[in-house]
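Hi L., both proteins are below.
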Amino acid sequence: MNCKEFENNMIAFVEDALPSIKSTEMQEHIDNCVACKKLFQEVKSTFSLLDDNSIPDMKPFFMTRLEQRLENENVEYTIGTKLRWLYSAAAVVVMLLGVALGITIGKNITPVQLSDNSQQYEMIQDTDAEDFGLISFNDYTIESYILEDE
């Protein structure tokens, strides 16, 4: 038997669930292999701790104090949960009011008519052109400005 086969069958060996022939092979391997013997002893001691069914003695009123503590934590949790829901609901209401207000204001705004203002825009351009010593903004190009300096 090799170590890998031993490891695969070790739990069944600890629980005495192997056939007698296999158990004999396992015992022979433990006697000959130091690493597997150490592993077997560790697993066997772990199983013995798990099989120990003794329940430690509890202090008096332990369960009463534990139940009271859990109840207090539950009350604090429910208050915090309710406050979070309240804050969330308030945030949603504020957002909805903002959207409704935006829609209402948007409906009352009249659109700007750009076609009537085109003459006024040209007049402003010409005024700016005159301020810089230009005769007319529409008649003056960048090429003529560059050529004029030379």
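That was the first. Here is the second:
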Amino acid sequence: MRSSAMFHSVLMMALPAAAAVVLGQSPQASTVWTPTTTYTDSTGVVSFQYPSIWKQNPAPGDYAPPQLVSAGSTSPDQISPDQRISPDVTFALTSDLGPYTTSNLEGLFFVYAHKSADNAAGCDGIGTFVSTDPKPPVTINGITYKVYGLVNPGLGHFAIGLLYSTFQHGTCYFFETDYAATGSAGEPDDVNLRGSNSAEINAHLLTLMQSVHIAPAKP
């Protein structure tokens, strides 16, 4: 599950840089990225917005999956209890990619998962299982998240993204944003996405993450 140092050296996922990108909104880009639908989990604690064109819990495809999805399908005898997680929901766009149809992009992903824990340290097993690339923490809508850089290399496919982790109300909450593409994550042209703009995509994914709200604990 962990990615190698070679892949980390080409991971271009700096949050401030992504946030500074001016987002273009051509008609095609607007359809792909405009968050028009709200998801609320079964507890009513977590909510976020996503583009209506994105599909909920899509069937696996011929692309490198998000790390939380991979962790959820890992055999229990291969991981420790604190590393076990199953996504609550995955939203993805793997067709009708609008302005990215001529690039090597294969998909865009937003994944949410949660699990009970006694303390914040109980959340760290997932982060260290899927990543060896911790990033500086960020605060979104009053919640501070640990952030991990992600690279999921495959045979002719790869996924690059970020995992956000926070401990609230006795629960670990995880959110993952990714893009998947053909090629190798060790090739700079592929990391930058041929015929597309990875910085712009990362900024759009960050905007989806910025829509996440975790309700305060009830008195």
